[in-house]
Structures are given as structure tokens and as C-alpha cells.
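Hey, I was hoping to borrow your eyes for a little while. A protein chain has come my way and I'm curious about its shape. Take your time with it, there's no hurry, and the full record follows here:
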Amino acid sequence: MSSYTDIRCFTVSGGRNPNHLISIASALSRRNGSYAGFQTEEPQIEEPLLLFVVNVFESEGAHITFLQSALNDALDAELSRLAEGEVAHRIVLFDDVERRLRASITEFVTFTLKEDNMMNDLGNFTTQLREKLEGSESFYGSSWAPVLNVPNTYHGILGWDTVKAHWDAVRDGPGQEVKDRKEIIDRMLERADICLVHAALQPLAEI
């Protein structure tokens, strides 16, 4: 089922402070369909770290209602308090995204179209990559779609058991399947710039 997915990301000061997640959970009244977590890489990076807050909605109307609500006001105020600099905000119509968000590691990948290239090409390549990734070890599927509020941008959310499982599937592992996936990604990189980050999210209803 498709869902409106509201993704906010920002640089946070003070390292991996669990109180940050608690304060965000409190601001959102621990609503179901809300997730937050810190950037998590292998090897682990030091500061500055990114913090992700993701809210999933069943419809556009539900998302609009949230944006006009006191909960969103409270979230904006809390993120402004925690963020160093701007809070990036992406809205994407994904399918079956919560399975990826509940994985141990969630991969956030954004492709921004280079000049003189077509969004349809990116869409075709993401379809190919999605098909090639099916059957990968420690994989919870992928969701891909254009970003609704940022032009010429495609977003993917993928679920993994570990960061290493991701890199093994697309870069470091043996076999023809890995080579095929890498070839698709290389062709995408000819047409778009990439931003890729891993995060370990927690459902805010459970914090």
C-alpha cells in the first residue's frame, strides 16, 4: 500500500544522545508510524552526525492534516532546538515503506538529476535495481519514488540487517548478481548525483 512519507534530516550536535530521540518521541506524542534514529556507518563516523525523523501517513489528506496540527508545530520546534543548520524536508509517496524503516539498518539514498538528463531514465534504473536486489541476503526490500516537494530528485529507502550487508550486495560481494547491480548503479551515477546515508531507526511509539 502506498503511503505519504515525510522525511526530515539534520545535523545534530552532542553525538548520540538518546535524550534527543526521547524528546522527539515526546513532541510527537509517540504516534504510530513515526521513526527516528542516528546515522550509523561501518566503520563508525564521529561527529557531525545526521539524525532522521520519518513520519508515515496513509493518505495525502492525513499528511496535510498533520502539517497543520499542533503535533507538527511541536516537532518543528524540537528539531529547531536540536539541529545545527537547516532541516532537510522530503515528502515521498512510497509503497510498503514501514518494513524498511523497521529493519536494523535503513539506507536513505537520494539521486539528484544532472543537467540534460531525464527523470524517466532514473525511474527505469531504480526498477531494474529493485528487481536485481531481490533475494539479497539480510535484505528487507526497497521503496523508490520521485520526491514530491523537490524537483528532479529520486529517493530510495532500503532495509538491511547491517551496513555490511548493503555493501556486500552492491559492491564488495562475489558473483554476477553483484556485478549486475553495480553496473546499474554506475549508469545511474552517470545521470545523477548521489547522497547515501545509513541510519538505525526506532519506532517512536516504543521509546
Q: What stands out?
A: The two ends are 26 Å apart (CA to CA). The chain has two domains: 3-96+200-206, 104-197.
